[in-house]
Amino acid sequence: MNELNKSAEHSSYRVRLLLLSLTVLVAGLFTLLSPESGYAQNPPDAPAAVPAPTGFKDVTAYPPLPKPFSRGNFTPQGGSKTGPYLNFFILAFLTAIFLLWSWSTSWAYKDGKALKLNTDQWCSIMLVAGFVTLLLAFQLPNALLACLVAVLGYAVPIGVYVKERNDVVPESAKVLTPKHIRNLSIRFLARMGIRVGTTKAMESAIGPPISFIGKSASGPDRGADRNRQVETSRGYLSAKELIYDAILRRATDVHLEPKEDEVSVRLRIDGIMYPTEPYDKGTGEAIINIFKVLSAMDITERRRPQDGSFRAEMDLREIDFRVATQGTRFGEKMVMRILDQGNSVTSLAQLGMRKQVQERLAKVISQPHGLFLASGPTGAGKSTTLYSALHEIDAMQTNIITVEDPIEYKMANVTQIEINKKSGQSFATALRSILRQDPDVVMIGEIRDNETAGIACQAANTGHMVFSTVHANDTFSALFRMLELGVETYVVADSVSAIVGQRLARRLCPDCKLPYKPNPESLKAANISTTKIENFFKPPTDRELDCTTCGNLGYKGRVGVYEFLEVNDRIRDLVREKAPMNTMKAEARKNGMLSMKEEGLRLVVSGLTSIDELLRVVK
What we know:
It is a single chain. 42% of the residues lie in helices and 19% in strands. It has 21 helices and 18 strands. The strands form four sheets. Strands 3-7-8-9-4-5-6 form a seven-stranded antiparallel beta sheet. The longest helix is centred in the first third of the chain and has 31 residues, at 2-32. The protein is elongated and about 140 Å long. The termini are far apart.
């Protein structure tokens, strides 16, 4: 029975196809034989037409087609129409989606790798979604539906990825936000020569997401007037780009150095100077003037050294800048110290000390009185160590007062005093006054002279805990430095509780450091067992560098190398007796003290730094 039905259906289909073909043929004949065609008026060798009898219907005529004939992509309302079977508009749209999808996949791979996201997972999702979407779009008969599927297939995966990456980046680095889209639009129109919005909006969109806060002596404006003074100055955008780039590259200092025909720029990153693109003479001098105005300096004075400071807002946080100028042969040189509290150390545990040293230092800090000194050259992290020690003390139950030049990091519930040389306030004069403020803990930014050293030791001997720094190479040099400043030996012996000598070594990048077998002779010379050491680590060479984590530097961040000297009763007696330094060192080693180089070798063995870097900072 089913076979009979199928046979009947096939027969019906053949009949309909035959009727349709005949209809097309008849329609063509009627077109040729219509009165409008010349062929019907003058047919060659055609017999005279015989009119049909009146009142009779022509049974050989077929009814007209319900729809006009068309071929290709065109669907005319009336008449016949032919055209191409390929819709070039849809093809161009899908090609654009394909190119955008290819670029977005490549961007997501690079962006996710830099942000430490799962790039393999996201790239796989985007590749599969892209291929499936394009195949499906080409199979759909409806053009609008194909376009909709292509857009959704592209937008959904990339949208989910953008959502995840925006959750782990600061506000200024987020993409596809209203602010980001607005800035992109302004930048695009600016390249086309079209300026929209105010000048400030243009600079905010075109320039980096950072704003300056000039120094203000008083008032709630917080230096807004000084910022407005330089917004329209030449080189303002270049100044913003310079500071923004320095912060992103983790620089601690920016050097603007005038040359004969240019102003060179160098950044200190992890203690090493790196040159960047210089400015021409005019632009460089304009940038220096902008920072001088922000720092409340005299822009007409170019020979006499000046000091100042300003701030900047970036990623919803404030960053302080300490500025110093000096006249040179080719002009005025400027050095800016970047004090970013977002990267500051807030506890002893973050310093990276050996556990035994950390415990002994915490015990010294908790004492009711004494003098704790941090020693080392400039840029060794002495102030960071003192701030970390202050964070270990409960500021609500303890009266903490600091005297600094200048104030580097702001601390809650701590009275911080800044030295003002113009008004005659020095460390010594400030110490005399704050000792009448009932302090429990006093921090002195630096001991530079005999008067400051004497007052600090007297405060330590009269029931105050005093923190300070001394410029010296190691702990014993710092101890003898206090004696060289003219303080009596018995006063130094009774007041000093502990001294930390320190250096900062560059930390090896965890993603590109390379292991290697150390030389056995070098291990024996360093008193390291060859059986316990498998590998040392080193940075890759320039040819091997391809790391987005460290920016192809081989190092990222720094780690402290510390030498801790706790002054016990035996060492106090040696100080009173003015014993030689070697005698004091031998006594300290009996108490478990390790030299700075020995402490650094511990970091080399653990893979935190390289042996070359240790020898660079520790002699």
